[in-house]
Amino acid sequence: MVNEQGTHHADLTSFASSLTKSETLSQLVETYLALSTDQPNWVCNLSNASSLLWHAYHSLNIPVNWAGFYVIDPKSPTDQLILGPFQGKVACQTIRFNRGVCGAAAETKLTQLVPNVEEFPGHIACDGETKSEIVVPILDKNGVLRGVLDIDCLALEGFDETDKEELELLAKSIGETCEW
Amino acid sequence: MVNEQGTHHADLTSFASSLTKSETLSQLVETYLALSTDQPNWVCNLSNASSLLWHAYHSLNIPVNWAGFYVIDPKSPTDQLILGPFQGKVACQTIRFNRGVCGAAAETKLTQLVPNVEEFPGHIACDGETKSEIVVPILDKNGVLRGVLDIDCLALEGFDETDKEELELLAKSIGETCEW
């Protein structure tokens, strides 16, 4: 849809190649917040957030091969995540809290920054090409875990403290703007 | 996750470049059915289906720039669609039944095969680069409209009767395998 400025929604995925990682990810968070104003539907918001993440990392030439979300599985809410919106190749459908990087983020409610997934105990490989990963828990306004933000990279050490900081801001924005 | 055959979920997005369009889309439908066996969660299934669509069309060198879903908006179920899982650039969040190609598919419950979007009355451009589009309604087991499958292409006449036939099979499979 064309907005007042004559631009299209798709244009929101344009990130200037001259920006630093911190600037790109800050723009991503601002764009997410603008999109989620007056729109609390979590499926809609996570779908657009996946697109923003994919295009932001590709504008930075970071070889992200998967960007998206797992949410609490309504069929097993105390111990299982289920696949949510994402961009990338087909992914595992459910993940137990005690399995892999996503499970660890869900169980501890702490960001998991993993420079080498092969060194992570119990790593679940949805894609054998993934080398590094970052997973950030998503808590709602009341501190209840609603899901995790998950990004995979084809390179070792794909993510650092800057990613952690900005993605935690995004996860907080998502947790607080969505109705779950 | 590695299955019994030692392959990863991501490998399901591999479509041989030697296949015809009909063969590729048939493989897509079969893969969707295998993935949705024992998994009725609609968000999970539409997320993986979007990935399959994106990778299938790219294996065919058809310049698809958006592949995904709009579903009935629970806040306005009689007259509005809301964005669901997709792959591609950021998209319009809600679409009224009386607006554009997606709205027409929802209102008529009939596939809309649009060789040139600029000639479609009331076309909504989420992305100004889209030239052609196909939208297929998704009905559940009881014939109730649950959403639409939407694919956009950067070329004119990106889709034909083969796409219509195979995507209607996929939409029927999705409608009947998911709990809505």
Largest interface: A-B, 44 and 44 residues
| Spatial sequence of strands, sheet with the most strands of chain A | 3-2-1-6-5-4
Task: Examine the coordinates and then state which fold CATH places here, giving the name of the CATH topology of chain A.
Answer: Beta-Lactamase
CATH architecture identity of chain A: 2-Layer Sandwich
Structure class of chain A: alpha+beta
Strand content of chain A: 15-25%
Question: Assembly type of the shown chains?
Answer: homodimer
Total tally of structural domains of chain A:
1
CATH superfamily of chain A: GAF domain
| Overall average residue pLDDT of chain A | 94
| Share in helix of chain A | 25-40%
Spatial shape of chain A = globular
**Rg measurement of chain A, Å:** 16 Å
Measure the end-to-end span of chain A: 26 Å
DSSP summary: helix tally of chain A: 4
Assigned CATH class of chain A: Alpha Beta
GO molecular function (chains A, B): L-methionine-(R)-S-oxide reductase activity
GO cellular component, one term (chains A, B): cytosol
InterPro entries (chains A, B): GAF (IPR003018), GAF-like_dom_sf (IPR029016), Phosphatase_reg/MetRdx (IPR051330)
Protein name (chains A, B): GAF domain-containing protein
Q: How would you characterize the overall build of this protein?
A:
- Two copies of one chain form a homodimer.
- With 180 residues, the first copy, chain A, is α+β, with helices and mostly antiparallel strands.
- In chain A, 33% of the residues lie in helices and 23% in strands.
- The first copy, chain A, has a six-stranded antiparallel β-sheet, with helices on both faces.
- In chain A, strand 5 and strand 6 (145-153) form a beta hairpin.
- Chain A has one domain (9-177): Beta-Lactamase.
- The first copy, chain A, starts with 20 loop residues before the first helix and ends with a helix.
- The longest helix of chain A is centred in the N-terminal third of the chain and has 18 residues, at 42-59.
- Chains A and B meet through helix 2, strand 1 and strand 2 of A and helix 2, strand 1 and strand 2 of B.
